């Protein structure tokens, strides 16, 4: 297979970026998209030039590092798959492919296709954890959880933190990511101790990090490689109001 690639090259967040064109031939149809970029980089390095910087780790849709925009779509044209799960057979022979980094103010470009997603870490640090007594493993069956609830919590916990939801959102909102993290903890009894403050802390951390607000475009749900549902955003909003209500109760009914 043959492809014309237009790839975004940018030295750092302050430098001016531009698309650079590369021609690829002899691409096997069972090659993954990232393997194709590996082969391109070998050719670029052989010419004594700087390779295209991109991020990856697991290459099986688990770690969330490989996010790139392919032909205008976060993670490319296959629904429910991360960029590392794409194969070249998903593109017609002779196709022209445009490859870009995530575009969002809260994800500054580090180099070429690599962006800084540490803003997600700051949201997690604000409340995406549970208090546990370390040093002992409690018997799992001590806390029975209805199967439907456990399944729903697992649906939310599938989020791999890739950032595609932010890249696809016209507001650059992190609502789907934040709601998935809040929901999987809110649904389980283990998340109970911090529940009253978690949603407010995480939503406010997202705001401080520079993410926009959700206005129900649902591009996030359409592009998410784990098919996280926007229903979790509704749950996040309920959790947020619940936190405000708890604050109001604690202050003797005088809401802020
Ligand atoms: S919600 Fe989906 S798109 Fe957003 S970070 Fe999680 S896995 Fe990625
Ligand atoms: S490289 Fe881990 S999800 Fe793609």
Describe what you observe in this structure.
By secondary structure, this protein is α+β, with helices and mostly antiparallel strands. Helix content is 36%, strand content 11%. The protein has 8 helices and 7 strands. It has helices spanning 33-46, 118-127, 147-157, 164-168, 175-186, 195-208, 219-223, 231-250, and strands at 3-9, 18-24, 69-70, 73-74, 96-100, 109-111, 114-115. The strands form 2 sheets. Strands 2-1-5-3-4 form a 5-stranded mixed beta sheet. Strands 6-7 form a two-stranded antiparallel sheet. It starts with a strand and ends in a 6-residue tail after the last helix. The mean pLDDT is 94. Bound molecules: iron/sulfur cluster and FE2/S2 (inorganic) cluster. FE2/S2 (inorganic) cluster binds at residues 56-59, 61-66, 82, 84, 160. Iron/sulfur cluster (SF4) binds at residues 159-165, 176-177, 180, 224-226, 228.
Describe this structure in a few short sentences.
The protein has 256 residues and is an alpha+beta fold. 36% of the residues lie in helices and 11% in strands. FE2/S2 (inorganic) cluster binds next to loops.
What is the H-and-E element order?
A: EEHEEEEEHHHHHHH
Q: Which hetero compounds are present in the coordinates?
A: iron/sulfur cluster, FE2/S2 (inorganic) cluster
What form results from the Cα inertia axes?
Answer: elongated
Largest beta-sheet characterization: 5 strands, mixed
Amount of helix: 25-40%
Distance between the termini: 62 Å
What's the average pLDDT?
A: 94
Strand order of the largest sheet: 2-1-5-3-4
CA radius of gyration is 21 Å
Number of β-strand runs: 7
Class inferred from helices and paired strands? alpha+beta
Strand content: 5-15%
Which consecutive residue ranges, at least 5 long each, have pLDDT under 50? none
| Number of helical regions | 8
